[in-house]
Specification:
Layout (H helix, E strand, L loop, with lengths): L2 H22 L9 E9 L2 E8 L2 E10 L3 E13 L6 E14 L7 E16 L2 E14 L3 E14 L1
Antiparallel strand pairs: 1-2, 1-8, 2-3, 3-4, 4-5, 5-6, 6-7, 7-8
């Protein structure tokens, strides 16, 4: 990659990352709720979610035995559904990065923006959820897709 292209890739990602972190974090003490679990779907992987006073940050790391790695992060807003205790909807913007190793000097890179919308149900310290994640790949080519899945997280208090 040329140095101009490298700068062109990194700058928008850094700006977007700082915006996401700025929107969804606060200098006040967070509620301290951190969840770790698994998501099954497209993609399947390990998920980490932590709540702040202004929302939540949701991370998904996935890989396969085909030399593929995927990382997704979303800033989320979560709201209750009417009067149903423990059931919420959530949505928010995000970024994703995918890398497939094809051989020496032939890696594929997928980089873009995404969003997520879903439902979650709380049972004690467990969150069960389902979500859809539309994605718009910007780098190396422009392409759209929809991912998502179902998952469970255990929350440490």
């Amino acid at each position: 990659m040329t140095s101009k292209l490298t700068i062109a890739l990194r700058l928008p990602l850094l700006v977007a990352a700082f915006v996401l972190v700025g929107i969804y974090t606060s200098t006040a003490q967070s509620p301290g709720r951190i969840g770790l679990g698994a998501q099954f779907g497209e993609p399947t992987g390990i998920t980490l979610k932590f709540y702040t006073q202004r929302g939540a940050l949701d991370f998904l790391a996935a890989w396969d035995f085909d030399n593929y790695f995927f990382l997704n992060v979303h800033g989320l807003r979560e709201r209750p559904i009417a009067d149903i205790r423990g059931v919420n909807y959530f949505l928010g913007p995000g970024l994703f990065l995918g890398v497939r190793e094809r051989g020496r000097y032939e890696d594929d890179l997928a980089l873009g923006i995404s969003g997520t919308i879903g439902l979650n149900v709380w049972v004690d310290s467990f969150e069960f959820y389902g979500q859809l994640t539309p994605r718009l790949k910007i780098i190396e080519s422009t392409d759209g897709s929809i991912g998502g899945g179902i998952g469970v997280r255990f929350y440490f208090r």
